[in-house]
Amino acid sequence: MIVYAAFATSSWFLIERVGRRKLFLAGSIGQCLSMVLVFGALIPGTTSAAKGAAVGLFTYIAFFGATWLPLPWLYPAEINPIKTRAKANAVSTCSNWLWNFTVVMFTPVFVASSTWGTYLFFAIMNACFIPVIYFFYPETAGRSLEEIDLIFAKGFTERMSYVNAAKQLPHLSDAELDEKAREYGFTGSDDEAGQVKEARFGEKEGELAEQAGGQMA
Q: Between 20 and 30 A from 111 (CA), which of 4, 149, 161, 212?
């Protein structure tokens, strides 16, 4: 639990600096290799080999705490527009806890029937996520909600993967955001960019009104 807490804390400093994609990929690869170490060490069935399995469990917890523990709570909120954000977060949260429950329930039975096979299964599961993340998870670190909305608009309009769209779309100023929004057909306040923009400028107008009122007083 000390290792778990320490690496979970490190995620606070890594998420923006390293990026979501790299952390997802590093977590999946690290967890996969940790499970490979565990099942490989358990095959001989000796006490010394079991110590290697313990190392694998510690490295797994470290990788998980720094990557897959926090990211599933953050990423769904970022990639969904305002219209679906609440429902998407509800689905992702339910999915998270349901799979936690499922793993907790079947793992003891699995371990009892096949000690090292359990960890081979988990290694394969982690490996399966690597191509999915690489090909389908666009980077959102350092992006505003408007920019993320434009990433998906660019990918859809220009018929390219959203990963490539995120790579090609530069960081935009407010004026550039407006220009890109018009280019991709975001002309009203029903879209993500429009709603966020209205909220932003509404706050500014409120601040200006308060300042003007204070000066008149």
A: 4
